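Task 17 of the worksheet. Students: predict the tertiary structure of the chain below and write it out as structure tokens. Keep your answer in the requested format; marks are given for formatting as well as content.
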Amino acid sequence: MERNADELTSLGLSMRDQGRIEEAIDFYNQALKINPSHSFALINKGAALLYRKRYSDALECLERVLALSPAIAAAWNNKSVALGNLGRQKEALACCEKALELNPSYPEAWYNKAGILGGLGLFNEAIECCDRALSYRPHYAAPWFNKGAALYQLERYAEARKAFKEAVRLGDSQASQALATMEEEGH
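Model answer:
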């Protein structure tokens, strides 16, 4: 039985959900052989490549998506992740801005923007972005962690501890280590 690009993309998503990322990428590639302009296969392949830390490959894939469909906020957000991991922070920030222009209530884009701003030493701005992410999705552990990290850098230790504790409560294992480090340092 011959499958179409939509079916192959769905099989890729199923593999992704099972943690079988390489198999997912194979299904996305098969879908793209049938339809090289299949935006949904491209964006999911890009996300899978990000997960595998294949940032240059992910960037290439996401640029293809955006050439076809420039109004996909998730593609801009994922492109920001790829660029950030390639050390191209200013371009990554611009991609976050584009994602937020397309979807101002996109918590993942606010979270990613916070990470970039924190990496640039703009901790107050990073905290504002974390707060925006949390205003849309209060039980999202990652912005709580980033907020804690930014507060820590600003030496606002009591607030950092509170943010890290919330991240731990929501299942972020990095936050446990951050709290242990704060304890060791006497904060």
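Marker's comment: Residues 1-104 form a domain with the Serine Threonine Protein Phosphatase 5, Tetratricopeptide repeat fold (CATH 1.25.40.10). The CA atoms of residues 22 and 172 lie 25 Å apart.
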